Amino acid sequence: MPVAAKESCPAALGLRPRRTLRLASGRPALPSPSPRSPAGWFWSPLGLVASLSFATRFYRLREPPHICWDETHFGKMGSYYINRTFFFDVHPPLGKMLIGLAGYMSGYDGTFPFQKPGDKYEHHNYIGMRGFCAFLGSCLIPFCYLTVLELSKSLHAAMLTAAFLIFDTGFITLSQYILLDPILMFFLMGAVLSMVKYNSCANRSFSAPWWFWLALTGINLAGAMGVKFVGLFVVLFVGLNTICDLWELLGDLSLSLVTLGKHFLARVLCLILLPLALYTALFAVHFAVLNRSGPGDGFFSSGFQSRLIGNNLHNVSVPEYLAYGSIVTVKNLRMAGGYLHSHWHLYPEGVGARQQQVTAYLHKDLNNLWIIKKHNVNTDHSDPSFPVEFVRHGDVIRLEHKETSRNLHSHQHEAPLTRKHLQVTGYGINGSGDSNDFWRIEVAGRKAGKRIKVLRSQIRLIHLATGCILGSTGKTLPKWGWEQVEVTCTPYQKESPNTLWNVEDHINPRLPNISLDVLKPSFPEILLESHMVMIRGNSGLKPKENEVTSKPWHWPINYQGLRFSGINETDYRVYLLGNPVIWWMNLITIGLYLIMAMFVSVALKRGVQLTAEHKELSQVLLNGGGIIMLGWLLHYLPFFMMGRVLYFHHYFPAMLFSTMLTGITWDVFLKFWAGSQASGIQRRKIYQYGIVMLILLSMYSFYLFHPLSYGMVGPLASDPNSPMAGLRWLETWEF
């Protein structure tokens, strides 16, 4: 391949060399395994790494025998899968499905309530779900080891990376409980390792190993996206590598256009179509398994709920189109939107006009019923002597509250909670009111004159006198409003779920009924709806009272941990905190890498004469280190732009890349430094002693801080008599 083509894509974007790195100096080379060496160098260290990984993650896995931190959420969701009960979560379903499957396969019956942290598991079999997460967490270290080995061709760099991950207290803690994090990181690192492996097969394009690693990359991308939406970061990471790869191939003049087309199609097939198919399939399984009504129903539309066995809309027959005289319930389309509701209670003095309250109520109730009437006549449309008239898009209507006979009304008084919105009330006597009771009904995306369909039509109610739109703000009213949800008339014309409604219940004896099965949404529709609800749920996440949150700048410096279990000296305490020596070493290494990469880049650009060995080391630093540095940036920087609540554990995927960068950087640094200090055997000793010292440092710091992961009982670290007293190096550490 022409040299110019190789240099056309910057190393910082992870351009990998298309040949095996070899040291070619006349001086004795520093230890670096070759792919052609006997198999022993490969399997023995890998076996040691895997053994230590599993030993540290499975040690004391049963402790503590009660719910810890977010086990209350994800253990409960695993139970829902076993019981086939529908629920809502802000993350895609794969992680919870696998937790439920692990529980089912290990004999857990799905009956433990998972109510709150600290509840004892007693006779319930929780170890299968914890063991599954610990197994995937244990696989992370071999994955990172193999990735660094492939990028650097240095056994020592790979072993240093593995040691830092094995002896990090944070990764141990995060792997030992029923959480999504080890599952997410398993697929994430599986995608990175597969990508690096198929990069290394570049000289054997379209061979069986090349296809295997390319397809496995796509499978792991689907897995990462299927666990959490932050899996998008690794999708972007692989996408940038693929763009760079194709750009490099484009510069290879020995390749025909047909071959280039095959390369492009292979990547479309394995990295786009295959992940999309698998991602869609897991949602199909999710919807098929969770077919019973449950706590997640209210987050979704009426049409979605009609699919669920046990829901009040399942197998119900109602008239299909709205007509004047119909009795209906109207449901807001915002997430967890309530039903349009009114009751005899009035707004209190000083809150707009002292008229009947109109709210949104989250539960079924007779006070949710409204009668659709013409705006200018008070005809009894139940009288068979009058013809049936259907309500159409663009009609002006009145909504009369069935229980109180007052009309849905708005006027120029301000809403109770939301400034610049108008108050909505119930007004009039026995359906007689004024012109402020008139509303124009419109269907989103429809033309004038079209009939309005139950469940399916998304409608807006526009107040005729003021031009405002009926909506639900999602704000909870005070006790005078029975802590129901505020309904207002918003003057802003922006279309959003807050101002969209659909008709759910529909009673009209003069119209023929049809089964709601006919109106059930299709799979693409429920797939789209579930993603809209998840995205809105994610963006709406706010910290709970007394909850420990953090900012992204806190994470790399290990500023503050998370309590997994226990708060006092009699409790069994587990505290999520990274091994500070390892984390601060990783932070220092990022700066060291940037300095080294800058100097090496300048030296190469200026044509400084380097030995063949130093040139190869420079390529490892820029290419291998560049890939890993890009991965760290993509998994860390986006959090600075997020508006949702953030926690310390969000940094751990980026921490994987930071640790791999540490292994590569220190390996190259020690080789450079040893090469400038001595020669021959002395160089080997300086290099090897440096690696061993770093590994021993990680082991000693693990010895000091391992109680954070495996549990502490007794005095808190703030007590001078505590064995952890001298280890509280930062005031923000709360163990």
TrEMBL record:
Keywords tagged on the record: Endoplasmic reticulum, Glycosyltransferase, Membrane, Repeat, Transferase, Transmembrane, Transmembrane helix
Bilayer-spanning residue ranges: 127-148, 179-198, 210-243, 264-289, 581-600, 620-639, 651-674, 686-705
Membrane-topology annotation of the record: Multi-pass membrane protein
Domain of life: Eukaryota
Domain MIR, residue spans: 319-375, 388-444, 449-506
Gene Ontology CC entries for this record: cytosol; endoplasmic reticulum; endoplasmic reticulum membrane; nucleolus; nucleoplasm
Location relative to the cell: Endoplasmic reticulum membrane
SUPFAM superfamilies the UniProt entry points to: MIR domain
Official protein name in the record: Protein O-mannosyl-transferase 2
Species in which this protein is naturally found: Anolis carolinensis (Green anole)
